[in-house]
Amino acid sequence: xxxxxxxxxxxxxxxxxxxxxxxxxxxxxxxxxxxxxxxxxxxxxxxxxxxxxxxxxxxxxxxxxxxxxxxxxxxxxxxxxxxxxxxxxxxxxxxxxxxxxxxxxxxxxxxxxxxxxxxxx
Length: 121
Prior knowledge:
- By secondary structure, this protein is α+β, with helices and mostly antiparallel strands.
- 29% of the residues lie in helices and 35% in strands.
- It has a five-stranded mixed beta sheet.
- Strand 2 (41-49) and strand 3 form a beta hairpin.
């Protein structure tokens, strides 16, 4: 559906991360930061749900072939994400705060479908 609309993969990623952020805000979460980079990797979205810090990985796939977006999160990526979260918490001096890691899977087609999986680790 959106083929050719984006200049590059990064632009497409940012589009779907913003789409996920808006979806989560509609569910009552508050946006804190997008695309936090450190030496261990990237955190797509950092949100808050009341006093819980929510770290969100967003994956988009154009179709459900090869498992689609739901199966796109590897254990290696999850480990990098966990190290990045630890780095974020340390750099922001956040200690003993409740955290959660969520996963947003978006699949394209005639209309984008979004699946929100809470607490993936």
